[in-house]
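Posting here for the record, re: iron/sulfur cluster.
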Amino acid sequence: MKNEKLLYIHIPFCDSKCHYCAFNSYTNLNHLKKEYFNAIKTQIENDINKSIQFKTLFIGGGTPSTMKIDFYEKLMKLLEYNLKDAIELTIECNPNVTIEWLKEIKNLGFNRISFGVQSFDEEKLKFLNRNHSPIQAINSIENAQKVGFENINLDLIYSTSLDNNKLLENDLKTTFSLPITHISAYSLMIEENTKWEGDFSKRKENEELEIWFINKIKEKFNQYEISNFGKPCIHNLGYWKLNEYIGIGAGAVGFKKMENGEWKMENEELRKQISNKQSINLLSFRYYTQNDVYEYLKNPCKYKYEMLTDEDIKKEKIFLGLRSIIGFEENILNNKEKTRVKHLIKENKLYKKENRIYSLDFLLADAITSYILD
Ligand code: SF4
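Prediction output follows.
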């Protein structure tokens, strides 16, 4: 069978907490880093047997660059056999990272690096509570190229209350001058459990400005998903294609499908529990480790489950397919749904190629999915 499995490892530590951030990340737990390695080692040994081969590895956070190189040396050693055939190894980092760290990370085999830049505007960075400067971001991206990274991503945030054409144009001018291959551009969301929870004054509602910004990016980088442009990230494409993944670390998520009528899982406990739930006609599920770092350290192999029915999976296939270049197979639809799709093709919202349905405007994915499934 073709190897399509993905591995995600979560690093929950950050130098400072950004005001908009709802990720599972902490600034006051640095003293737990050593124990954290031991916990992820336990989870890896429990969930990943030597024979599993991953197509991609993605280390995200939090801020993975807050961990010293010896952490990654030990981690890569632990996963040596499982990453033999991996084609993409990504690590996220903060722009305050040093060239020495970048060089050593490259030497460990990482071939894709992602920088949480967000903006090159000093005032906007302070407003977001980022702890790096524009010049640090420029230098670190150039350093990544110097040490040999050929796949470099840069994250940008838009729709903040400070944004206007001039600020965003300046951000893009600097962005386009750098040796990057990929841009992730996210519209600011005001989320619960963040410093900005409930304060919608921090967000600018200006659809015209958003469309203008996205179109500017599209002039230079091909849009392949609603927020992603450039050379596609194979790991993220794998999520959207609903490939299986294993999630390691506090608050990480795994996704497992039944293979030939059987649950083939390393984790004995997980397999037992899932097998007991067969009565609901379950063909796939997601499982979550504990978010709380202290709880995770106590028991890294304790999971919560989210059962997915065929209908759930079908909805995800349509939604994720329409947000991206992936599209979805027409034959997952019933006759009524096919009629609605035909109508949308006539309306120039969708198109069909070799029995797959694709979107002509990723921004409409939500509305179109609801319409198709009624
Ligand atoms: S660096 Fe990233 S993970 Fe850390 S607080 Fe900021 S947005 Fe959240």
